[in-house]
Amino acid sequence: MHIPDGFIGIGASAAAGAGAAGGFAFAVRQAKKYLTDRLIPLAALVAAFVFAAQMVNYPVLPGVSGHLIGGVLAAVLVGPSVGFMVLAIVLIVQAFLFADGGLSALGLNILNMGGVAAVGGYFLYRFIFRFTNRSPRAVAVSAGLAAFASVPLAASAFGAEFALAGTTSSVSVASILLALVGVHVVIGAGEGLLTFLVVGAVTRSRPDLVYGSPAYTGDRTEELVQ
Q: Got the DSSP string for the chain?
């Protein structure tokens, strides 16, 4: 899933970097409204878990890898703003310390995995959850389904970026999309199962700490979907 240097034009990469920086600043401002001392340890645990999960890579194309994202898992547990921040911090550390993903493409990776997968996946979770019985199990099932969908959605975002600003014509956009979405549907199935299990376990033990749960006792300042 990490985009390497040179796949997307420098202009589009720079614009994405500016967008990611703006998104991070907005996420920090929103997170300050609800991130309490109770929630900070869970956010730290989620960041560590996502970091470890993302270090397991699956080859997709030459120079392009796929892996579990953890976006919906983070967003459901600690909210979409903190979820975006978690993904951004993980990706920054990976890019600078492990050369996982290009530095010029860092903004693109943050928008795809933090924006599309985490924030977009969270609101997809809220949409699915509206049609359930709102039980603790429904939280886990809805999160798992949203996580499954978020992975090929994030992969499709890269396909769109490549179509608009790709730097090579040796590989067709159709073949890129087919390979990415096909492989990431499989990866998404694993991510959906993992998200279902982790969110389910936390919801059973401490539903009051799960941001996306009806039993959450904190402030959902940024909640847009009821």
A: -PPPTTSB-HHHHHHHHHHHHHHHHHHHHHHTTT--TTTHHHHHHHHHHHHHHHTSEEEEETTEEEE---HHHHHHHH-HHHHHHHHHHHHHHHHHHH--S-STTHHHHHIIIIIIIIIIHHHHHHHHHTTS---HHHHHHHHHHHHHHHHHHHHHHHHHHHHHHBS-SSS-HHHHHHHHHHHHHHHHHHHHHHHHHHHHHHHHH-GGG-TTSTT--S--TT----
